[in-house]
From TrEMBL:
It holds the Pfam family Phage_TAC_5. This is Phage portal protein. It comes from the Bacteria. The lineage of its organism: Bacteria, Bacillati, Bacillota, Clostridia, Eubacteriales. InterPro entries: XkdN-like, XkdN-like_sf.
């Protein structure tokens, strides 16, 4: 029984950050695309963002609220670049991580970031485990 419990201890879980090239526009000194880093969110992180979004819900429509929640989730997940950096926000003429994200990325780049977020946070790997169990 102790072995079963050990699998659930925080230090034994396998949640790792994901690095992904969201765009070829952001290049390092060698001209290579700079990787964005995303961290996995917890269910608690998501609940906090949803709760914060409830205050604004009465002022916006359902579709607009869903978009705002998606942007908030993405901004919370992005580790690199630091979306809270004043210098970066100033360079785009915006205030706040969410507004910076929207200013920095084209629609296609935003979609690439969203796909990376989904693969990191919403794919729990159960399909792979199910396939292994079948074989």
């Amino acid at each position: 029984m102790a072995n079963e419990l050990a699998a659930f201890l925080a230090e034994n879980t396998q949640r790792k950050n994901l690095k992904v090239a969201v765009s070829a526009r952001f290049k390092d000194v060698n001209g290579d695309p700079v990787l964005w880093e995303l961290c996995p969110l917890s269910a608690g992180d998501m609940q906090d963002i949803l709760a914060a979004g409830n205050a604004a819900a009465e002022f916006s429509g359902k579709g607009r609220r869903q978009r705002e929640l998606l942007v908030a989730l993405l901004a919370k997940s992005v580790v690199t670049p630091d979306l809270t950096a004043a210098e970066l926000q100033d360079s785009y003429g915006v205030m706040g991580a969410e507004q910076l994200l929207l200013a920095m990325l084209s629609p296609g780049e935003f979609s690439a970031l969203e796909r990376a977020f989904v693969s990191l946070n919403l794919d729990c790997g159960l399909s792979e485990l199910t396939d292994k169990a079948k074989n």
